Amino acid sequence: MLTTKKKRTACKVLEIRNLTESTAVVRFERQGFEFEPGQYARVGVEGDPEIRDYSIYSGSNQDYVEVLVRRVEDGLVSKQLCDLAVGDEVSVGGPYGHFKLIEEVRDKPLLLIATGTGISPYRSFTESYPDLNYQLIHGTALLEENYEAEFYGENYFHCVSREEGGDYKGRVTEYLKTLEIAPDTNAFLCGNCDMIYEAFDMLQDQGVPTARIHTEVYF
Ligand SMILES: Cc1cc2nc3c(=O)[nH]c(=O)nc-3n(C[C@H](O)[C@H](O)[C@H](O)COP(=O)(O)OP(=O)(O)OC[C@H]3O[C@@H](n4cnc5c(N)ncnc54)[C@H](O)[C@@H]3O)c2cc1C
After folding, report:
1. The domain that contains 159 carries what CATH number?
2. Which of 19, 23, 51, 72 to mutate to test the pocket of ligand 1 (most atoms within 8 A of CB)?
3. 168: domain range?
4. Which residues of the chain fall short of a pLDDT of 70?
5. Which residues line ligand 1 (CB under 6 A)?
6. Taking a C-beta distance cutoff of 8 angstroms, is the pair 9, 29 a contact?
7. What SS3 string covers 156-206?
8. Mean pLDDT rounded to a whole number for the chain
9. Which residues have C-beta within 8 Å of that of residue 197, sequence separation ≥ 6?
10. Residue 107's pLDDT is what?
11. Residue 5 half-sphere exposure, CB side, CA atoms within 13 Å?
């Protein structure tokens, strides 16, 4: 099948927010980049051929673009992105992906489930559509990995697997087992594939039809 090669744009880094020692929000110039909340961009350091996919963290109504990047120590690109400084340039392509909030579900109750940096598209959803009715369940190993949770207020629920102090001690999938989920729930799952496969099966077992379960696998 023939596909159109999308153009890449060099964008200046405007801000780096280090949220933990290993995770940063990289903000760069938008330069007319059009996307729908939930989509991802292909980002690399300008001049380097290596690029990776990153969900867009910022809202579609903002005049910059942000991505939330976790540093993978034996990886190639994420480390470089976390080490960028203001004024450096990233190379950006896209947008890509279908992990979006179609208009018909924007006024329905939403169950947003993430592990780690999989929270990123939900920041874009909730920043872009401020009136959403949602509950966000976020699973991380550590308490500090709640990635600007104050933004979501009461809608945020933190499952922390390796230490005390979150809303639930354990994995997201363990917490989901304690919930009764209505079959008309619109569920979004984003993050690592183990969580997504397990949560997908659990939602199906509770009667949520496949068409209402949306997934974005990172690795
Ligand atoms: C659609 C999509 C959206 C994504 N969005 C994000 C995002 O918003 N933020 C983000 O940080 N990453 C995101 N990723 C993952 C990202 O594309 C890279 O895979 C990641 O940054 C590692 O790249 P690297 O070059 O440093 O490591 P690589 O050299 O590509 O790989 C090193 C190893 O790290 C593993 N790995 C990848 N991601 C992680 C992780 N988060 N934790 C632990 N191990 C990992 C890979 O499976 C691989 O085995 C997304 C992936 C996809 C497919």
Report:
1. 3.40.50.80
2. 72
3. 103-217
4. 1-6
5. 40, 52-55, 67-70, 72, 74-79, 97, 116-117, 120, 216, 218-219
6. no
7. EEEEECCCCCCCEECCHHHHHHCCCCCCCCEEEEEECHHHHHHHHHHHHHC
8. 96
9. none
10. 95
11. 3
DSSP-derived pairing of the beta strands 156-160 and 134-140:
parallel
pLDDT for 7: 87
Buried b (16+ CB within 10 A) or exposed e, 186-216: bbbbbbbeebbebbbebbeeeebeeebbbbb
User: Can you tell me which atom of ligand 1 is nearest the CA of 54?
Assistant: 5
The amino acid that residue 91 corresponds to is: S
| 148 and 213 co-located in one domain | yes
Letter for the amino acid at 10? A
| Same domain as 117, residue 208 | yes
Please give the pLDDT value at position 1: 52
For residues 80 and 151, state if they share a domain: no
The CATH number given to whatever domain includes residue 16 is: 2.40.30.10
> Quick one: pLDDT at residue 4?
57
Half-sphere exposure (Cβ direction) of 209: Cα atoms closer than 13 Å: 3
